[in-house]
Amino acid sequence: MNTIKSFTKKYPAISIVLAFQIFRFLLLPFMGLMPQDAYYHFYGENLSLSYFDHPGMIGYVLRLFTLLFGKTVFVVKLADFVITSLTILSFYKLASLFLSKQKLQRAIVLIASTLFISILSFNSTPDVPLLLFWTLSILGLYKAIFEEKKQYWLYAGIAMGLAFDSKYTALLLQFGLIAFLIFSNTYRKLFFSPWFWSSLLISILVTFPVWWWNYQHNFASFLFQSSDRTSSISGFHIEPNFFFGALGHQLFLLLPVLFSVFIVFTFKYVKRALIQFKIPNSQTLFLLAFFIPTFVGFMSLTPFYWVKLNWLMPSYITGIILAGMVISKKLLKAQVITSVVLHVLVALQVLFYVVPIKSDDTWIGWKELAEATKEIQKEHPNSFIFSDDKYKTSAALTFFMDEKIYAQNIIGKPALHFDYLGDDLTSLTGKNAIFIDSDTRFKNSDKKNELPVDVQKYFSKVTELDPIIISKNGKDLRKFWVYYCENYTATP
After folding, report:
1. Whether the predicted pLDDT of 88 surpasses 80
2. What is the pLDDT of residues 112-167, one digit of tens each?
3. How many CA within 13 A on the CB side of residue 146?
4. Which of 50, 17, 394, 53 is nearest to 225 (CA)?
5. DSSP assignments along 238-282, one per residue
6. Strand order, beta sheet including 475-488
7. Cα Rg for the chain, rounded, in angstroms?
């Protein structure tokens, strides 16, 4: 006990960071499978150079961890926790290049106290490896530019490529680098350096698998990520709910203190640039180059487009370093206290499920659904199983059941990467199926007494069975409608 007290007194910032990480680690065994965990684990079980909706890095990470430690929910969460812990360590190294000891301590406490770190530690998404390689990319670029260590141009190129292999928004790394060189009088000359161009070339070569997969599949992933969103943005309809929703998400992820600091220094630097035509010093400009395009760019879209809460996350890395330069001890204390309160509430929700979540984006009930589905399948042998909610139910059942689970491509709908597994659906002709449909906002345990029209087109007969009710501590939490479908035809 005395040793702990002595360590805490000597290293207060590190002690706070360790406390947050130990808290997160202890919570891991109580976290159930999220549908995102299941879907990206499904990536790893179906190895490919890339995937329909994202590059494959998160799938490769989960595949590695399950090969090493087994296929369990805890191992999936452990992978997220380990990669995110490496991101924190990389952030510490990066921040130490810009900040004094005192400000460095404040910055590391800031990042460790955020809820976005908790989300990355608990939930598998492409952002988990993206944030690690984003941080390593900036670290490599710093050493290449400011310390003139030529080999770091190569390391940075590899890291930027791996970031893109994690998520397409990593293109903003190259954009930030080029923006920095354009606005920097001191380092603009690097445009003529072969090391700069070698770094960009290496980053492109590392992303080759993603480009090759897209080439083989008519650029399906690039079109999916760009065309729909571009058409939505081009509509330019002002939607206040989008803006306030995004604002609420950012306040939740960063907490009000840190988000407010972001807004204040963003306004200050943008005002100086646009009104006073002042460019900050090279190191600050470097940090802003990897913050402004992502943070301001996506926030500027929020009045007329639904910007997802994780899109701004890469900007947090250099943003928190900038915040560490200016945040006071008093504000930092308020940030930590707010964070502790919210993390306690998160723990209570995880342990006791205090507030029911009326959505499929929950960790409750997926394993129980799989067990109930197995029992139904015993009563209707030789029936295949499918669902129709993009990926969530199908991915979760795939994780918990040792058999092939299908998605809504069974009834002719686009089904994300389920469409790219090479399945010959005509081979299922004449077979019977069990259709599982989640009732996200259920009010009772009754049958729906309504047959799904889309499903009826593909089967000669559809019969509704008793719904699956997921309960905990005597309380009904989730409901799934169940249908027995006979005589499938892939071409109705």
Report:
1. yes
2. 999 999 999 999 999 999 999 999 999 999 999 999 999 999 999 999 999 999 99
3. 19
4. 53
5. --HHHHHHHHHHHHHHH-HHHHHHHHHHHHHHHHHHHTS-PPPPH
6. 405-406, 383-387, 432-439, 475-488, 459-472
7. 25
pTM beyond 0.90, yes or no: yes
Query: CA-CA distances (angstroms) from residue 3 to 10, 15, 29, 88, 436?
Result: 10, 12, 28, 25, 55
492, two tokens: 């109705």
The model's confidence at residue 278, banded by pLDDT at 50, 70 and 90, is confident
SS3 190: helix
SS3 for 439? strand
Please name the residues in contact with 432: beta carbons below 8 A apart, sequence gap of 6 or more.
380, 382, 383, 384, 484, 485, 486, 487, 488
Calculated CA dihedral for residues 227, 232, 235, 236, nearest 10 degrees: -120
CB 103 within 8 A of CB 247: no
Q: Do residues 485 and 434 lie in contact, with contact meaning Cβ atoms separated by under 8 Å? A: yes
Q: At what angle do helices 12-27 and 329-352 cross, to 10 degrees?
A: 10
**Which secondary structure element, helix H or strand E, spans residue 406, and what is its range?**
strand 405-406
